[in-house]
Write a structure and sequence with these properties.
The structure is a homodimer of 337-residue chains. Chain A contains twelve helices and eleven strands. Chain A has helices at residues 19-32, 44-47, 74-80, 85-94, 107-118, 153-167, 190-201, 212-217, 227-253, 256-275, 302-318, 320-330; strands at residues 4-9, 36-42, 59-63, 100-103, 128-135, 138-143, 175-179, 205-210, 222-224, 284-287, 292-295.
Chain lengths: 337, 337
């Protein structure tokens, strides 16, 4: 297996679960993948309690001086610079000592430090956050999920191209849909209207406008929208799935007959639950930077954090940033105004 | 029971299910509610096949000359005027011959004809489409759902006030949340930031920013956002619920043990399904006009259409437009710039 060196930044004292899960996930990652190297970047006293007496091969600790807080504003993130775990991790990657950054920090911090220390790919106007959403026939790659709250048409077009590269479908060119309030060409505000016109001109497998329900129906491979709507869609869907399953569980516990039925049906229900378990999908790439950056959820546990590390390794091996740069340039999408 | 006169506009040949369901729902409505009067407005030859030999009391037919198509643009909707079923229905209500309009027409058509023929309430800048979303402790009233794709802060503030009137909670003032990409005060674009500042000044039970998952967690009674994001959230949630239940059904059918379990658990599962059945929630009020206007879903069946008629009757009896006008004026929200 090709080698991949990942920096795992331990900020905000390691997310909701503390540094323990980040150290644990790093140990799991080097144990399962002989091509992975991990640099755990954090405050030594945060990490120390969870480290084994002797570190396994391909795992090292890089000390940082401070941990960014989850709600730190961009200006303070930038001021802290390479003193923070994330800043130090970015510095290692920017300098070529590693290939990818994984962090449970905020989108705002990843954007600010990513743009400053790694830089955008040539021609890319705005990086975008992507995620894979479980859909009827596999998954839908959706972006942007909150890196850009207001966009213009050129941003949406570049998001579409980055999504196509990331989707990585091999059998056919990934299909792209632009999220809108209706399928008809007349629908939508000026920004989606202009992006639609651009996308029709490009040699993409462009499907046109899609609606919210098409995301889960798997009508397209890549669904594109601004980060404000995308973030609300993602979080409301997570909230709905969580509530539906908790209501089902409560309803099934309520009656003897249902309880027996639930026990019998449990393995089948578990299959569905697992497919919608956010941990299975943790690791949202921030696309458009010169290096691989993966955002792990603040509430990620050890298996979910491991999943984010796998995602970073896979993107580094596929050289996703290089391929994005190539496609943006070959489509002339670096000069859209 | 107080009387309520409703016009039911049969356009686009009656939605996905044809005029049959609209005639059927009108018959059901006058049968169940002795205070309801319904004027079925449509092309006589569309309605005739489904009407009983003699009309029941309180149901009459008002002929129209044409049916609007689902994708009609505003300019052609307005040009058709009172020749269409919706235009004729609005004319009856605007002239005082009825209290409310129910239509399965497009949001665009309802907005265009509603503003022109009924008029906005004094001080209201934009009407907004609302819906009740099932949530952990009942439901969340959410608006706007697609009537306004781009908004400014004053629109969002007025949506909040209209949502409070509609929510109709009696035990305590309804709580209001502004949808955003994070709970922190620093989050969001300029429009939500400005709306947040306004809302803090008003004597509302304002909770501050909420995130997508808070809608289903029932953190607030009224959730406010622009119509572009709102429409995408609503449709993606409907799509996710539909897919989750179909996957559960498929998974439960796959194994003998699960099949037996599913049979035993079916009544409990059905309880949850029914709570999330869109038909239970059909009938989205278009708020901010001088009269009651309720949008029925294009795919509404007979029970769902009946639900929209009940919604219209209830709003007319509660005199929702008058109460919205009063609260907008008493909060001075008619003069926000």
């Amino acid at each position: 297996m090709k080698r991949a060196a990942i920096t795992l930044a331990v900020d905000a004292h390691g997310g909701d679960h503390g540094p323990e899960v980040m150290v644990g996930a790093a140990l799991d990652a080097v144990a399962e993948d002989p091509g992975i190297e991990i640099a755990l970047v954090g405050i030594p006293s945060d990490l120390q309690p969870w480290l084994p007496a002797s570190l396994p091969p391909r795992l090292r600790v890089v000390p940082s001086e401070c941990a960014l807080q989850a709600d730190a504003r961009p200006v303070s993130v930038l001021r802290t610079g390479t003193a923070s775990s994330l800043g130090r991790a970015m510095e290692l990657v920017g300098g070529g000592a590693a290939d990818a950054v994984v962090s449970a920090g905020s989108t705002v911090a990843l954007m600010a430090l990513g743009v400053k220390m790694l830089g955008r790919l040539p021609g890319i106007r705005r990086p975008a956050l992507m995620s894979r959403i479980p859909a009827a026939n596999g998954f839908t790659s959706m972006l942007d999920l909150g890196a850009n709250l207001a966009v213009d048409a050129s941003h949406l077009v570049q998001f579409a191209i980055m999504g196509v590269v990331m989707h990585g479908r091999r059998d056919a060119p990934p299909s792209v849909g632009l999220l809108n309030v209706g399928h008809e060409e007349s629908k939508g505000h000026a920004v989606v209207q202009a992006a639609h016109e651009y996308l029709l001109e490009l040699p993409l497998n462009y499907h046109g406008f899609i609606e919210g329900n098409d995301i889960f129906a798997g009508r397209v491979d890549v669904a594109v929208c601004d980060g404000f709507a995308g973030n609300l869609i993602l979080k409301s869907s997570e909230g709905l799935a969580r509530m539906l399953f908790s209501e089902l569980r409560r309803s099934l516990r309520g009656r003897t007959r249902a309880r027996l039925g639930a026990w019998l049906a449990a393995p089948a229900v578990r299959d569905v639950l697992e497919r919608y378990d956010p941990a299975q999908h943790n690791g949202a790439p921030l696309l458009g930077l010169r290096n691989v950056v993966v955002k792990s959820h603040g509430s990620a546990d050890r298996p979910a954090t491991l999943q984010a590390l796998r995602e970073a390794g896979s993107e580094a091996r596929r050289e996703v940033p290089m391929h994005i740069g190539e496609l943006i340039s070959s489509y002339g999408a670096d000069s859209i105004q």
